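Following up on my earlier message about magnesium ion. Here are the inputs again, as you asked, copied directly from the submission form:
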Amino acid sequence: DDHTVDLAAGFGVACWPEHAADADALISRAEVAMYTAKRKTTSALVYDPAIDASSAETLSLLSELRRALERDELRLFLQPKVALASGRIVGAEALVRWQHPERGMVPPMQFIPFAEQTGFVRQLTLWMFEATARQWDTLRALGLERVSVNLSTRDLLDQDLPAKLDAVLKRHGVPARAFCLEITESAIMDEPQRAEATLNQLHAAGFRLSIDDFGTGYSSLAYLKRLPVDELKIDKSFVMAMETDEQDAKIVRSTIDLAHNLGLSVVAEGVETEAVWQRLAALHCDEAQGYHMSRPLPAAELPAFAARW
Ligand code: C2E
Ligand code: MG
Ligand code: MG
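Thanks, got it. Here's what our run produced:
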């Protein structure tokens, strides 16, 4: 259809018999080399035990992750987002957890990066979106205005994402405006033009869009101005340090001003103390999320929390 498509390939090479004696192990090692090649800009890489430091762990995690969906081991957790002015719970962020039969509750930072590398994250995103859509009636009854779901770079590069999300919305009878999609700066800046095209489609479909971990990536203000985003989420590293570090406090204040001047709302993540809450309220930050209010909770526990709150 007249679109220019950039294709890239990563090659992993493993040699018999020095890298492995049997075929399965040989393929695994080639796979390790391939994922390393894909991560770096090199297109081909020969297996080396040095790149394999945690690869046994990584590979078993990868194949287990593929099965985690079938075995229903992923869990939806929700962390409330509170409006600073009213103190009301106005939203929640959907965060994935992996209830592993032996490893216990695996935090996302241990498997999202692998899921990103292999492209599996696209299935994970749809699973999260569906699990969240299923909760929407309950959340709306609690007074929530919307719920946030994280997207990854791979999702943004998937031209079919808007159609896939639309199918989930239709299946559950949920409007797009019930969702805020969080995208990190680095995901956008990986391939700004394609990301922009997807974001424009999602915006047109009615989704609210948020830039996550703002301040840690390489955002260009030129893009910020152009992209159809509604919200900036200040990275927790600045928020957590703002009590003790005046520079961080200045970054938070400036980001709130920047966002408001651009007509965006601002969320501070990582609010761990009452003092930070008070400072953010004084700076007219719109919403706060953090351990001071609540840790991420299993989805089924949110109603009881909201009732106490
Ligand atoms: P994120 O999207 O920036 O999510 C916020 C993270 O900050 C969550 O970590 C949350 O538990 C943590 N957090 C919230 N309040 C506080 C606080 O007061 N103090 C501290 N120290 N931490 C706080 P979590 O759940 O471990 O998730 C980490 C990252 O994993 C997320 O960062 C997000 O990038 C990724 N992630 C989680 N779930 C998903 C998902 O479903 N899809 C995708 N693509 N990524 C996900
Ligand atoms: Mg997020
Ligand atoms: Mg964040």
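One observation from looking it over: The chain has a mean pLDDT of 91. Hope that helps, and feel free to reply on this thread.
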